Amino acid sequence: MLTNPLYNDKALNRRPPVYLTAPPIAPSGVELQHLISAPETECDLEALARAITIQDIIFECEGDGPMAQHPGFPGAIRQVIGSELMKTASKEALGGVACPWGPACGLHVFFNGQRSGKGLDIPPPWIIRSETTGANSLRITLRLFGLGLLWSSELSEACHRAIERGISLAGKAPICQSVLIRSVETVWTGLQDDAPTGSLALVFFVTPYESESNTTQAETGEDFIKGLFGRCEAVARWHGLSLAEDWATIENTMDHIRFEEKGLGEIEWNRCLSQSGGANMMMKGQMGLLQIHPGQENTSYLVRLLQIGELLHAGQKIAFGQGRYDLFLTPLAGDA
After folding, report:
1. Residue 74: domain span
2. DSSP labels for 26-84?
3. What domain count does the chain have?
4. Do 180 and 52 share a domain, yes or no?
5. Residue 136 DSSP one-character state
6. Does 331 sit behind a cis peptide bond, omega within 30 degrees of 0 on the bond before it?
7. 173 with 75, same domain?
8. 247-255 vs 299-312: helix axis angle to the nearest 10?
9. CATH code for the domain in which residue 127 is found
C-alpha cells in the first residue's frame, strides 16, 4: 500500500492547527448611524493615519479606453451601481432613512448620507477611479475604507453586474460592457511611516477639484487645505474614531503656507442624469498643478493631510470621482 512519506513526520505533526474564522458581521443601518455619530475614541491626525485601512476592488474591462479619462465617467459608473443596489435595498433605504436590516443593505452604506453628532455630513466610505489602460481597455477601481470594507462583496457584485449590462455616457454606445479580470487588493498606505518634513508639495489634480465653497482660482489653495480637515474627520468616523480638533495647530499651519495657483485651470462638462441621455447638469472643477510652500511650522502635519487626501480624494463631488490628485514632495532649496 502506498503511503505519504510525510505522514509520520513528527515535526510536521507538531505544527499548530490553523482555524478559519468567519468575517465580522456588518452592523445594521441604525447601528451604523450610532457608530458614526458617536464614536467612543478620539484621536489626533497621526493616530488616524496609522489606523486607516483601504481596499481596492479592481475591474479590468474591455471597452473604449480613452473615454475612461472623461471627467463624467466615474459619475456614470456610480449611477449604474446605484441602480443595481436599489434592486436589493430595503424600503427604508429607498426612502432615505436608516436601513433596519442586519447587515444594512449596500444602498444605505454607499449612497445614503450619514451625519456626525456635530451635524456634519459624512460622505460614504468609497471613491471611484477610472483609467485608460489601452485603446480598447480600461480599469475601474472601487476604493473602500474603514467600515465600508464589510460590504465589499455586495458592492463588487453590483459593479460587476452593472458593467456587464453596459455603462454609457450621454446616451452613447456603452463605454465598457465586459469584465476581463476582477481582483481585490489591500492598499499599503505608507502612512505607518513618519511624515517627511521640509518639503515643497506639488499637488497635481488628475480629476477636477471642486472647492467646498464658491471661491476664485486664487483662493483654491486655502480652500483645498481647509477642506482636507473635514475630509479627514469623515474618514475618521468610518474607522470608529473622532478626530480631535486642534484648532491652534490648524491655524498655525495655515498662517505659514504659501500657495501658487497659476498652474490651475477650470474645466466644465455636462453630467447626464440618465444612462439614456436627456437632462444633464453642469459640472466644473480645477485641474492642473497647485504648489504649496509649507514654511517651517507644522510641516509634517500638513504633509500628513496631503497624503490622506491623495489616497481618498478631497473637495466637493468626491462621490463622482472628483478631487483625485497625485502628490509629489520635493526638498526645499535649503534642504537639498
Report:
1. 29-33+41-186
2. PPPHHHHHHHHHS-SEEE-HHHHHHH--EEEEEEEEEE-GGGGGSTTHHHHHHHHHHHH
3. 2
4. yes
5. T
6. no
7. yes
8. 100
9. 3.30.70.1710
If asked whether residues 176 and 203 sit together in one domain, one would say no
Are residue 209 and residue 110 in the same domain, yes or no? no
Kindly state whether residue 21 falls inside one of the protein's structural domains: no
Residues present in the chain in total: 336
Judge if 182 and 205 occupy the same domain: no
Angle between helix axes 73-86 and 152-165 (nearest 10 degrees) is 110
CA distance readout (Å), 319 to 1, 144, 300, 314, 322: 64, 12, 28, 10, 7
Burial (CB count within 10 angstroms: exposed 0-12, middle 13-18, buried 19+), residue 249: middle
Phi, psi of 121 (to 5 degrees): -75, 135
What's this model's pTM, rounded to 2 decimal places? 0.89
CB 281, CB 271: distance < 8 Å: yes
The pLDDT profile of the chain, 336 residues, written as one tens digit per residue, is 455 554 455 554 566 666 666 667 889 999 999 999 989 899 999 999 999 999 999 999 999 999 999 999 999 999 999 999 999 999 999 999 999 999 999 999 999 988 776 777 899 999 999 999 999 999 999 999 999 999 999 999 999 999 999 998 876 778 888 999 999 999 998 888 887 766 789 999 999 999 876 666 668 888 999 899 889 999 999 999 998 876 677 777 788 889 999 999 999 988 776 665 667 788 889 999 999 988 776 788 889 999 999 999 999 899 999 999 999 998 755 554
Which residue, 143, 165, 186, sits at the end of a domain? 186
218 and 292 fall within a common domain: yes
CB atoms within 10 A of CB 335: 10
Domain boundary among 161, 186, 211: 186
Residues 304 and 237 in one domain: yes
For residue 249, give the C-alpha cell.
495647530
Count of CA atoms in the C-beta half-sphere (13 A) of 28: 10
107, 161, 229, 305 from 156: Cα distances, Å: 13, 9, 29, 29
